[in-house]
Write a structure and sequence with these properties.
Elements: H1 9-17, E1 22-25, E2 31-34, H2 36-41, H3 51-57, H4 59-64, H5 68-82, H6 88-98, H7 104-109, E3 121-125, E4 132-143, E5 146-156
Antiparallel strand pairs: 1-2, 1-5, 3-4, 4-5
Length: 158
């Protein structure tokens, strides 16, 4: 089950202060909260949505992501690595939903070594300009106070 407990006001204030796309997500890539720019970039990714299933099932994701195949593989591999630490019932829910994608079995069965790049950039189609842009994609962990979610940001490179 998705934990629908909203983040504290301080975390939401930080999230909504960011001008570029950003969201808070948990260890299973369930979106806890998203700013308006993130929801414009990835329609259907508000609270309760799962980032992996959104990439696999949301038609707009194939348009937004310049190399959908590579990004889908990164997300599926990251989810597979995180799954043993997650609530098994929630993992089953997410996997059952992801199986609706015709690409699921191939992506799930492909083993890739996780990359640890110094900088992660992704080619995306900007929803406002409709032009391809390279974006930094970074995930930040809350250190003080500790939180059960991470901050994902998508910031233009150029």
């Amino acid at each position: 089950m998705f934990d629908s407990t909203p983040p504290p006001d301080a975390d939401l204030t930080v999230l909504h202060s960011l001008p570029h796309p950003a969201c808070l997500h948990d260890g299973g890539y369930d979106v806890v909260a998203a700013n308006d720019a993130f929801r414009r970039l990835f329609p259907g990714t508000g609270p309760g949505a799962n980032l992996m299933t959104a990439i696999l099932l949301e038609p707009m994701a194939r348009y937004r992501l310049g190399d959908w195949e590579a990004e889908a593989q990164v997300m599926v591999s990251a989810f597979r690595a995180a799954a043993p630490e997650l609530n098994p019932e929630r993992v089953e829910e997410i996997v059952n939903l992801a199986r609706r994608s015709p690409d699921w079995d191939r992506l799930w069965d492909t083993v890739v070594t996780p990359l640890q790049p110094r900088e992660r950039t992704v080619l995306m189609n900007d929803p406002e300009t409709r032009k391809e842009r390279r974006m930094y994609v970074q995930t930040f962990e809350f250190q003080s106070p500790r939180r059960p979610w991470w901050l994902l940001t998508v910031v233009p490179f150029d």
